Amino acid sequence: MENAVLITIGDEILSGNTVDTNSNFIATELKNIGIKVKQIFTISDEIETIKNTLQKAFELGDLVITTGGLGPTRDDKTKKALAEFFNDEIALDETTFNHLKTYMERRGRADILERNREQAFVPTKSVVFQNNFGTAPCMMMEQNGKLSFSLPGVPYEVKPLIKDQIVPYLQEKFNLNYIHTRIVSVVGIPESILADIIEDWELALPENMTLSYLPVGTRVKLRITASGENEERLKEQTENEIQKLLPLIEKNVIAISEDKIENILSEILTERKLTISTAESCTGGEIAKMITSVSGSSKYFLGGIVPYATEKKIKILGISRETVDQFTVVSEQVAQEMAKGCQKLFDTDISLSTTGVAGPGKGEDGKDIGTVFYTIRIRDQEVTSKLYMPHLERIDFMNFVSQKVIQDLIGLLVNN
Amino acid sequence: MENAVLITIGDEILSGNTVDTNSNFIATELKNIGIKVKQIFTISDEIETIKNTLQKAFELGDLVITTGGLGPTRDDKTKKALAEFFNDEIALDETTFNHLKTYMERRGRADILERNREQAFVPTKSVVFQNNFGTAPCMMMEQNGKLSFSLPGVPYEVKPLIKDQIVPYLQEKFNLNYIHTRIVSVVGIPESILADIIEDWELALPENMTLSYLPVGTRVKLRITASGENEERLKEQTENEIQKLLPLIEKNVIAISEDKIENILSEILTERKLTISTAESCTGGEIAKMITSVSGSSKYFLGGIVPYATEKKIKILGISRETVDQFTVVSEQVAQEMAKGCQKLFDTDISLSTTGVAGPGKGEDGKDIGTVFYTIRIRDQEVTSKLYMPHLERIDFMNFVSQKVIQDLIGLLVNN
């Protein structure tokens, strides 16, 4: 059990209506137990296509996981394809029907049980993993040492099925190789130069270790992966290699281990017992959202404000009207006053502020689209920066700026 | 030119480190010019795999678009595979090098031009579409009436290449069928019942029209797609079918046409000249972010606050300490006082508030994880609701609640 193949079924992905987040989640969970996703097929909901893709998938890997195509509506054909592929038939499964019944009753929807009855029809050779958060069950098929799991497509049904049922099942059934991953987050060096600097180190990595470059905004994440039988040995080996790497790029490393920037921030703020607040204009609440998406953030995040209208900046954060009149609302000066007002309002060690024009459509103040000023205030010290990113679409702009502000804050905290 | 196949290249997607958003964007853009994405392959950065996948892709469609695998680092092998597949060689392209030079100079990075020199090496038979937002160019290859475009993987480089260069190129080169899509957003009916209700209507749709069900949280989006030569005729035809559909589910339809719920909200608030503000605890700024992600939102969104710490709720929004002590901070009463305080602070027609426990880790007040109270206040009327979603992960919880709050608000506005 080394290689898995994922099949995402459904026109909603192919048509661009939905972003496929299931594959990302499943790949991460499998990676943790040493199973590598070799390929992902995203296909439409047609019986022949599903059968052909199952065939190709089993040529590439021993484990196939499909998501989507199991709902109660007309355009769901996975179950039929599954039965045909495995020379099986579909029949009502009593246990599954009882589970469905309990599920519907608990949600006060016993009245539509009959309408969902066909959800309890599964291939007769399948092993069912019951779905506690939806009506479509997960079906496992096994043939000649190859395994397939078919899940519904709704992300919050997929997650518990994978995490609580399928991963533990696979762990127990196979005696899997251990895998160990560390992420080194690097800022301030373009990817090409970084590659030059660490080339010799990379070429000298042991055979069981690999390196990947993952650029995120202006940050580059170096992912070091090691696989082998002995967990302790892998950890030791990875740590050794990181110790060799660090002297080469030390000044530019902002974190080792944690991946998402909001998690890195969480570690630092928690360790140093610092509190933080945000005053966001052009990022519209995204920085606050990123910070609060980390469990335990209430320990350090005291609050945020999105004073979108200029009048609210003046009223709630105490920006002076003169500053706005003199420099416009998208200016270094307003960013500074926002950070100061925010720090006072929420009474925190650190405050962050953003003011800019996300576009499209020129801002009220005549500044160009894509301009943002942001201030990072740590106690009585502050740094204000300007970014100009006219090529980014509105949402990308909001996300990019939010990433950059948190990244800069981490840089300041790490180097002080 | 009817069917396209997308190939996403790179281990960062397969390993679960990055969510593939490029495919979503490209599929949407192609759909608008009548090209259907038939399949998406997500593969690793290996020359043989890339070549094999190009082969399979061209069996499925006339147009292949690859993203990823064009950066300056070691693990990028797309260009080599491309040249081998098309029996070509890679050579320095002067025009591309000059473009790269200008690009680097403008960004003040002329010092590392040489390091990026190999980015200007392209297959000799390729037509280059210059990348104005990155160093890797887009290469088009053509053979026996089949077309391939190879793009870098960075989303903000992909978007302008697709939108400003490739789509216009395809539109001009081929005389494509028109496509027309309408979305009908339905709330308050489970998918299975909805399918029953509209079954006869669906079966009677003309041959050039298709229907898809796209569930988003508790909302179901019905996507009606029509294709044909005459744009006006398509619009008319779709409108006719929608007029037949509406009487069947009228009370549950919250919008026709716009897709994202924040866009639907934008239409309604703009039309009715209503202003809005938000006070978010457990959603951490996501509602504000959703609202402000729409261009032009500054017309109706005056501001938001994320009073994360209880003390800040009391200080800034004027929640009474007695209410918190008596009912705890996660309560109907606190949600109501938050909405009232928010409406006053920002002086808006509408205010939204959320207070809950996103988990994991029990909230400070002993309420269970997954509980949220939210209040929608429209002038002097308010509705407070409770949700209990213990199965959702923290970020999913924040997103789900945010969607639901906006959806409920739309429901209230539409039915009043």
UniProtKB/TrEMBL annotation, chains A, B:
Pfam assignment, any one: MoCF_biosynth
Keyword tags: Hydrolase
GO molecular function per UniProt: hydrolase activity
Gene3D superfamilies: CinA-like, MoaB/Mog-like domain
Keyword check for Acyltransferase: no
Record's keyword annotation contains Transferase: no
Domain MoaB/Mog stretches: 5-173
Taxonomy, superkingdom: Bacteria
Record-stated family: Belongs to the CinA family.
Name assigned to this protein: CinA-like protein
